[in-house]
Amino acid sequence: xxxxxxxxxxxxxxxxxxxxxxxxxxxxxxxxxxxxxxxxxxxxxxxxxxxxxxxxxxxxxxxxxxxxxxxxxxxxxxxxxxxxxxxxxxxxxxxxxxxxxxxxxxxxxxxxxxxxxxxxxxxxxxxxxxxxxxxxxxxxxxxxxxxxxxxxxxxxxxxxxxxxxxxxxxxxxxxxxxxxxxxxxxxxxxxxxxxxxxxxxxxxxxxxxxxxxxxxxxxxxxxxxxxxxxxxxxxxxxxxxxxxxxxxxxxxxxxxxxxxxxxxxxxxxxxxxxxxxxxxxxxxxxxxxxxxxxxxxxxxxxxxxxxxxxxxxxxxxxxxxxxxxxxxxxxxxxxxxxxxxxxxxxxxxxxxxxxxxxxxxxxxxxxxxxxxxxxxxxxxxxxxxxxxxxxxxxxxx
Length: 397
Prior knowledge:
Blueprint: H1 3-12, H2 18-41, E1 45-50, E2 55-58, H3 60-66, H4 70-73, H5 78-81, H6 87-91, E3 97-103, E4 109-122, E5 127-139, H7 141-187, H8 193-224, E6 232-235, H9 236-246, H10 248-253, E7 257-261, E8 268-271, H11 273-291, E9 296-303, E10 307-314, H12 342-352, E11 356-362, E12 366-374
Parallel strand pairs: 7-9
Antiparallel strand pairs: 1-2, 1-5, 3-4, 4-5, 6-8, 9-10, 10-12, 11-12
Helix pairs in contact: 7-8, 8-12, 9-11, 11-12
């Protein structure tokens, strides 16, 4: 409502009867209620502040975005709600300000916002005067996820193309090097003992490095080149026990205690035993390397309404919060000797089975890696798009 109209209305109050005042107030109340209904119905968040940045109004969506109550937030600084917002820039702004905001509570999401100045006519010359700011917020979480998925898809395609070159340009020369090093070792048997021992040590180091490069190349190819699943009915508990037994020497050398808590009612699953055991190896080795020497690795299996799960919990130092968003990225590692491909392989194997990987970490207390596998093989999955024209109905049996 314009300031000129309010001034005119206030000037007429002495000449208006109480009944007319009541009618005016009822009309104003209806208009206010109608506008509030509209603002509360829209999906975008709306916050209105005065020129000092104090909140005058916020709609239902804005409250939901930040997990706050309207009554408790009125009169507070907008900076207390939108942490990180430049309050001074907003409180004195006469131009539109735009930006993105990450919200962690009550739900992790990303918001795009823009701040517009609210101007009104004032004085005889009707100059525009700043009355406050309006802040419009839009949830862009899904948009960011789709963008990230597109980037990851393009990255995967580029890596797959690169893998074909690596297999030829690195794999074959490494095999040739290893063969020639073996031939050198045989020829060294004819040399004097002192010279032979020195050369054997150098050849041993060279063969070890060749083997390490070959392992990195193999991991890289497994990570980005899809392998067809050879599905068979397997007992998940047995696969976990076999994986632990395979790594028993490394477990003993590192003085690590492995505690197994295997579910008694676990369903048998159709899985590729070799690929799934490879995923287990990678997770277990990551836990060993995090704990270094000593520590406890707890492995728990079980089943819920729709999925079987395996949880690997270590007592290592945990993952810093700033690294959590990068742990599945190729080549990301915090270890000098790490390849940064282990968890990427795990994620690819679980996704090929229709499953998923979750990570929970508490700095200083350890990491839990949760592998979830569907109890039935999922090739496709119908998503609830919310489109009434799809003609699809949910049936229960």
